[in-house]
């Protein structure tokens, strides 16, 4: 690639691409031999001068002299005018003068001025073409620009036309157009070359061919000419101080490594013109000649204008393509959002649009998940989807988007199970509910035609070991696996917009549902409590006044049991309403003997459910600062859960003791461990696992949530563990000051 490569500096312990990136190629201390240079400070004193200045211009100038007093300026009024205007620019008055033609020492020069920090730099480039010839170049450049104005079917067609016109205008043996990839490697996408040269079209060149500082210079100084690769550089003679920054120079000397790079390609002269879009190096027009070739300054400026026009056309084409895509994506996103907001089931709404969303993202497949529910499109198996989702849940914390085009390399532990999927773009819709929207791309087995093997070699040089450019640019093929097509920047932008809108839609739905739920809870709790109390009183009357057939008492018992259950549900609803309204549970703390409280609860449970065996292990006393009604609510809920979910015929155990750090209440029942997906949300209200439970059809999933809130309100905790063969719920409470526990007194 026509890129100014880098040499590692002295003292580098090990040559790396980072060493290359740090080479100061903007201060080489020399210029190319087809011109001369001098730099003056704001007072007109010469601070730098090229060693060939006197020989080329016919008048010697030494660093430290006042330029205006030298014979060179005294004999050339044009130079005096240019100097005065340039020094005025340094003082903040006016602009730099335009390039001018100077006759000096029997030769013609293009004089070009620029400012380098606080110095005025004057460059004198020797002309090799007559004024008449340059006029012909101008007409040719005008015709080329007119052709580039016309629309072309594709960007590559436009680049191909540019290479042809640029070669015709400049006379180079080869002109190539590079288009850079996101990883900064570049492909030759268009080429015009002489018949005797091998074509480089379709070959790729690594990012390391253009180090970081060279890329920065390609943006700052968009045209670079190396007129004679084999010519010796001309040193700058300084008057002391910092080296001269030649970033904007047209004569800046060339890195020795880049000279070696071009020599390995058999190139005698080169010119590169940057294609800059949105202040980024999008591509390059690279020109090679097998011998020396100096393109006149005015022609180079015309080429630079052509490249700017080309860049503007490319930017417009990219903008049109992006606008068309964004419009389609926006329309689809609006349809998705409308259905998500109006639907009672967000999951189903997303699933119905999954295939269209995948197409809009350029994905081959898509996964939609919500807790245990799963929807896939595009051929990805449910097993592979679950493996990926489990990996995402375990490794991708936070709420940010995860993207990769090399998933088998990022996650080798699951890579084989995911084949052939290598690209993933995962949107975390709700981490608490395990909700993801994941786009997938298949492995893209790619054969890359490199312009020579891309790895650089380490060789010994005058400054020690250094990286050297490739010695061969013959076609070198590489087969790349375990990667998909990378996600482009606009893919990530679209994914971010989609995620933001889905999260906003979820928030709006949740707020609406919470408001409706709180209102419903308040209505249920207020309007049902009095009727239920009346029903309960009537049931007691029926139970006491048993008829002759004995059925009246049984009916009363059933009504009493049902109304008690409804009373518990209403109490839960009222508690939930208070919690969601942030009113709290209004705990009434006092010193309580938990042993008596637990013994009474166990007796009540045995009486209410004669077929259930309940064992207790309690000390003589166990004092706590607690709300006895709320603690009773917690333990009753745990015993009820054990009765509903424990293995039939196995006893429920209720234990209590002091641990030294506080008080502990355990409710145990024999049962298999709770599924991790369920146990992770045990203390969450309205869990999906509460729906359709055969053992507890009337449950709302509120009991454990409220129990958790009660424990927290007491400064304690509640937790689940599995201690084979028991499912164990443990309540930790602070111990009352001065309280204690007597000896264990096991009872059954």
Keywords for this entry:
single chain; 748 residues; alpha+beta; Beta-Lactamase; 7-stranded antiparallel sheet; 6-stranded antiparallel sheet; 20 helices; 40% helix
Question: How does this model look, in words?
Answer:
With 748 residues, the chain is of the alpha+beta class. It has 4 domains: 17-319, Beta-Lactamase (2-Layer Sandwich), CATH 3.30.450.40; 343-443, Beta-Lactamase (2-Layer Sandwich), CATH 3.30.450; 510-580; 590-747, Heat Shock Protein 90. 40% of the residues lie in helices and 24% in strands. It contains 20 helices and 30 strands. The strands form 7 sheets. The chain has a 7-stranded antiparallel β-sheet. Helix 15 (489-544) packs antiparallel against helix 16 and helix 18 runs antiparallel to helix 20 (703-713). The longest helix is centred in the C-terminal third of the chain and has 56 residues, at 489-544. The chain starts with 16 loop residues before the first helix and ends with a strand. Residues 1-20, 460-473, 690-700 and 743-748 have low confidence and may be disordered.
